Each structure stands twice: as structure tokens, then as C-alpha cells.
Amino acid sequence: MSVEEPLFRVVRGVPTAEELAALVGAIVSRSRPVAGSASAPVSAWARSARPAGAGLAPGSGAWRASGLPR
Can you give the pLDDT at residue 17? Predict the structure, then answer.
């Protein structure tokens, strides 16, 4: 039976179980690929939830136009 080296170790202090869980969660989330990468297509449903913004200009009636379909 072989003994594996730990992925990380605490060198100072005595962290609580919650602090260690937060650290492990941060490390795991940083090591995973990004869910919404540029190569993944975006559905029309997801696009409809995003603010239009790009084609709108501030001014009279802009708030009303922001709610209209494009």
C-alpha cells in the first residue's frame, strides 16, 4: 500500500472544518473548465434573458424601448 502526498497542507493556524471546506471548494472550482466557454452555443432562450443594451441609446422613451422585442 502506497502513501500519497496531500494536495495541500496547512502550515500555520488551525482552520475549522468550514474554513477547510471553503478552501477545498475554491480549489475545485478553479480547477474545473468554465461552463459557458466561447465554443458552447447559446440558446435563443438564454439570449432572451440578457439585456439588449447594445442597440439602445439613452434618452426620451429609452426605458420603453428596452422592453420591446428587437
Answer: 92
- How far apart (Å, rounded) are the C-alpha atoms in residues 45 and 30? 28
Could you identify the residue written with the cell 439585456? 51
Checking if the pLDDT of 21 tops 60, the result is yes
Find the mean pLDDT for residues 27-52. Answer: 69
Of 24, 70, 18, 26, nearest to 48 by C-alpha is 70
- Per-residue burial over 13-37, b if 16 or more Cβ lie within 10 Å, else e, is eeeeeeeeeeeeeeeeeeeeeeeee
**Where do the domains of the chain lie?**
1-31
Higher pLDDT, 3 or 20: 20
The Cβ of residue 6 has, within 10 Å, a number of other Cβ atoms equal to 7
